Amino acid sequence: MVKRRTDGWERAPRAMVGRLLPSDNPVAEQVLEWTIQRDSHDIRQLMRWMETKRSRKDRVVLLNRALDLMDEIQHAMRRLDELR
């Protein structure tokens, strides 16, 4: 759906707006986007499991894994910035 503006111009939704220049490495971009999505999903699951754990040791293990995944997401985001 195109959003109407009061000045007579139309603005396309975000999903329709593309880049002017193609990516130098579209496969790497797709892999990095997939990595961010997968790691985000895994972090959510780890946090759900953390809610049910009572032992400090179990919570530390889950938290450390989530932090590792967050580091991986940050790396993927930096690489995406470099590619774009």
Provide structural commentary.
The protein has 84 residues and is mainly alpha-helical. The protein contains 2 helices and 2 strands; from the N terminus they run E-E-H-H. The protein has helices at 26-52, 56-83; strands at 3-4, 10-11. The chain has a two-stranded antiparallel sheet. Helix 1 (26-52) runs antiparallel to helix 2. The radius of gyration is 19 Å and the shape is elongated. It starts with a strand and ends with a helix. Residues 12-17 have low confidence and may be disordered.
Chain-wise SSE layout:
Elements: E1 3-4, E2 10-11, H1 26-52, H2 56-83
Helix pairs in contact: 1-2
Order of helices and strands: EEHH
How many DSSP E strands?
2
Category from helices, strands and their pairing: mainly alpha
Q: In percent terms, what proportion of residues is strand?
A: under 5%
Give the uncertain stretches in residue-range form: 12-17
User: What distance lies between the first and last C-alpha atoms, to the nearest angstrom?
Assistant: 27 Å
What's the number of helices?
2
Q: Report Rg.
A: 19 Å
Tell me the number of structural domains. Answer: 1
Largest sheet: 2 strands, antiparallel
Mean pLDDT, as a whole number?
85
- Estimated helix fraction: 55-70%
The spatial strand order of the largest sheet comes to: 1-2
Shape category: elongated
Q: What is this structure, in a nutshell?
A:
With 84 residues, this protein is mainly α.
Descriptive key words:
single chain, 84 residues, mainly alpha, two-stranded antiparallel sheet, 2 helices, 2 strands
